[in-house]
């Protein structure tokens, strides 16, 4: 049983950032399923959505930001910059997707290692959890297998997934100076955390078929571009600081 940190006197401030592009069917469910007693703010970053994502997210009670520059990393960075301007900055920032493929109610499991063991970065691993049939395509599964093994070979860290459901100490995230604004965002975070000797771990999370069509793995072009960017990032950060 994980104790609720917000019941403690020295409670950490936890916020959630959800990048979203045309997720009007799912974003309300994602926001509503986040255990609000654990978080102070839920921030949805609409990545140039053309549907009703913004309205649905606002109606669900989220803070909604709009990022016109297309790219997963751009949307995440919008939320980070907003958090960095808060009067009281967060201690922990949690990222998850807006398509309802993650289980937002598992947030306490993802933040627990930070709260209880002083871990810096926690990856919610779909590979270690239960996956609904059809929730991950073959390119996703193979890409995770290849990239995590290459990270082990190049950087000496053991991961089983590049899962989007993750938590990181906010001050540590700022130290990473994130720069991959498209498909390389998740792996950049894991690689740079390893290079900075940060403490990281994985926890099993469950995964289900997303609502709507994936903008990346749902298309051949998206899957290929993501794969190329991820492999390139592995090589690039091996030879830069």
**Helix- and strand-based class?**
alpha/beta
What is the terminal separation in angstroms? 40 Å
The parts where pLDDT drops under 50 for at least 5 residues are none
Shape: globular
**Extended strand count:** 7
Largest beta-sheet details:
7 strands, mixed
CATH topology, by name, is Spore Coat Polysaccharide Biosynthesis Protein SpsA, Chain A
In spatial order, strands of the major sheet run 3-2-1-4-6-5-7
Query: For the record, what is the CATH homologous superfamily label?
Result: Spore Coat Polysaccharide Biosynthesis Protein SpsA, Chain A
Series of H and E elements: EHEHEHEHEHEHHEH
CATH class: Alpha Beta
Helix content: 25-40%
Quick recap:
This protein has 241 residues and is α/β, with parallel strands linked by helices.
How would you describe this protein?
- It is a single chain.
- The protein is an alpha/beta fold and 241 residues long.
- It has a single domain (11-236), classed as Spore Coat Polysaccharide Biosynthesis Protein SpsA, Chain A.
- 38% of the residues lie in helices and 15% in strands.
- The chain is built from 8 helices and 7 strands; from the N terminus they run E-H-E-H-E-H-E-H-E-H-E-H-H-E-H.
- Strands 3-2-1-4-6-5-7 form a 7-stranded mixed sheet, with helices on both faces.
- Helix 5 runs parallel beside helix 8.
- The mean pLDDT is 90.
């Amino acid at each position: 049983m994980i104790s609720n940190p917000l019941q403690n006197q020295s409670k950490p401030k936890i916020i959630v950032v959800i990048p979203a592009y045309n997720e009007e069917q799912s974003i309300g469910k994602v926001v509503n399923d986040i255990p609000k007693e654990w978080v102070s703010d839920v921030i949805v970053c609409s990545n140039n959505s053309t549907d009703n994502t913004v309205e649905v997210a606002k109606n669900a009670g989220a803070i909604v930001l709009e990022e016109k520059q297309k790219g997963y990393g751009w949307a995440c960075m919008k939320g980070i910059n907003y958090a960095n301007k808060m009067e009281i900055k967060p201690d922990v920032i949690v990222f998850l997707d807006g398509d309802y493929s993650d289980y937002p109610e598992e947030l306490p499991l993802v933040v627990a290692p930070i709260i209880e063991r002083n871990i810096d970065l926690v990856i919610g691993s779909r590979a270690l959890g239960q996956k609904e049939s059809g929730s991950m395509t073959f390119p996703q599964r193979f890409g995770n297998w290849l990239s995590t093994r290459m990270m082990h070979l190049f950087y000496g860290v053991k991961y089983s997934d590049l899962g989007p459901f993750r938590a990181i100490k906010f001050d540590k995230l700022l130290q990473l100076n994130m720069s991959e604004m498209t498909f390389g965002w998740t792996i950049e975070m894991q690689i740079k955390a390893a290079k900075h000797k940060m403490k990281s771990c994985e926890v099993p999370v469950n995964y289900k078929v997303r609502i709507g069509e994936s903008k990346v793995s749902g298309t051949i072009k998206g899957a290929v571009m993501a794969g190329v960017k991820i492999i390139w990032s592995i090589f690039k950060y091996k030879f830069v600081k």
